[in-house]
Design a protein that fits this description.
single chain; 297 residues; alpha/beta; Molybdenum Cofactor Biosythetic Enzyme, Chain A; 4-stranded antiparallel β-sheet; 13 strands; elongated
Length: 297
């Protein structure tokens, strides 16, 4: 059976348990064994007389391994020297780990509710989009950001909840940090950036995405010879990567190139296309736009 995301609800609180010179490492080992988890994934994080708190570090847990495991966990903890488990001891947790206290048909119902909850949260996260323009010229108000409104309007028509992010600086670490925060702290399923993908030294968006996802797809739009003009890099790329289950799409800055990508982007977000396929389609569309510009009329 597939594991379920714990959705950052990782604490198990055991009430009705008392410690007297107990070895906390042994306590964590016993809990991990009872839960069928690697030892490194279980820690004792707090103890107050009568209450022990465990933290499960695993991102995903197979529900079949923990459902109905309350009695098994309490029994195993009671075997650790210095640990007393009272007759009325109970295990409590919010989120997916709450399965541990269920038995039989109740367990099956809890797992069904868990599946529904996980699916609903995943759906809502996937529909939350934030758009970051980039570049000092945008940050300083020297040029109007026409890309963000265009992206917002198109994706909102598709039913996405789209938010406007602040303009990102021309700085690799700062860009990566903003994307990381959008994913980890604010729960965006999609992060879109515009600009900063060129061949100049100041263009750092693609590099920031690759810092977050070393396997990001970064196809070339066009190539240059390094050292000619202001070209410090060998070409212009876009990037499509993933971080913490958040899709990252980094598009060029010119508004006509962004608009040319919107139908592909909207369709791909709905269909769940993989990052390499999406990057390839976007790059082909932008290269096609270049050819249209250069062709004689």
């Amino acid at each position: 059976m597939d594991g379920y995301d714990l959705l950052r609800k990782t604490e198990l609180e055991i009430r009705g348990i008392y410690l007297e010179r107990a070895n906390l490492t042994a306590v964590a080992e016993a809990a991990a064994e009872a839960l069928g988890l690697p030892r490194r994934d279980v820690l004792v994080t707090d103890y107050r007389p009568g209450t022990l708190v465990l933290d499960v570090h695993a991102e995903n847990v197979d529900p079949a391994r923990i459902t109905g495991g309350e009695a098994r966990l309490l029994q195993r903890l009671g075997e650790v020297p210095g640990v007393t488990v009272t007759e009325g001891a109970r295990v409590a947790s919010r989120g997916m780990l709450g399965w541990i206290a269920h038995e039989g048909e109740e367990a099956a119902r809890a797992m069904d509710r868990g599946r529904e909850l996980a699916a609903e949260i995943a759906r809502r996260v996937s529909e939350r989009v934030i758009v970051f323009p980039s570049g000092s010229e945008v940050r300083d108000g020297e040029i109007e950001d026409t890309n963000t409104p265009a992206i917002m309007e198109r994706l909102e028509r598709e039913g996405f909840r789209v938010f406007r992010g602040e303009a990102l600086p021309d700085d690799r670490m700062s860009i990566a940090a903003r994307i990381r925060e959008a994913s980890e702290l604010h729960g965006y399923g999609v992060v879109i950036t515009t600009g900063g993908v060129g061949a100049e030294e100041k263009d750092q968006t693609v590099e920031a995405v690759r810092d977050l996802d070393p396997e990001a797809a970064t196809p070339y739009i066009c190539r240059y010879e390094v050292g000619t003009g202001r070209h410090a890099k060998d070409g212009v790329r876009i990037a499509v990567g993933e971080y913490n289950r958040t899709l990252i799409v980094s598009l060029p800055g010119p508004n006509d190139e962004v608009r040319a990508c919107l139908d592909i982007l909207a369709r791909s977000l709905r269909e769940g296309r993989d990052k390499r396929s999406l990057a390839r389609s976007l790059a082909e569309r932008i290269r096609g736009l270049f050819r249209e510009r250069s062709s004689p009329h």
